[in-house]
Amino acid sequence: MIFESLVADLTLKETSVLSGATEKVIRHALASRVVRASRSGGRRTFGPRDVVYFFLLNELPSGVGLDRSLRKELFDLLAADKDRAGRWRREAHRLVLEGDVPVFLPTDEVVKRVEERIGTFLRGRGRVVSRPEVLGGEPVFEGTRVSVRFVGERARKGETTAALREDYPALSAEDVEFARMFVALGRPPGRPKKKLEFVRG
Known about the structure:
Strand 4 and strand 5 form a beta hairpin. With 201 residues, this protein is an alpha+beta fold. The protein is built from 8 helices and 8 strands, in the order H-H-E-E-H-H-E-E-E-E-H-E-E-H-H-H. It has a 4-stranded antiparallel beta sheet with strand order 3-4-5-6.
């Protein structure tokens, strides 16, 4: 499991959105020293392997509970590309938790999905621009006047990718998927924008 072509310094919120794990789960993993995050510019950052770890935890079958020791061993196995860590071992296309009833976690599909999600996110982030003269500075897809947030909100409410692309032909399916992520991240902290006021002439 190697992410040679994928370099990403992700925030805690981004890691949550990309892995499907809640922010609370990630904060707990940090506080209990199960996960080690890097630091960049005074903030914690996460990489693709961290996303795989939380993605795997999120995909565990219900009823498979891992104590702190097993979760830490799983993280160590993934973070260092080891062949073995504690009761976990790596096989060709899966991870195995040894025990009376072994647990098998297929990894190839998970790694592929994580690579696709992070790639979509990074490329999408590079497509977003914000200029005062375009929709009052609202983030839009580069080369368009299409609001990223508006598309993401429509997608979140259940509109299909095909329907959105029919309304906005300049967008790709990946743009729509990124817009979903963009909305899930929420608005950045700061002063809220003033609501537009309509004044009679």
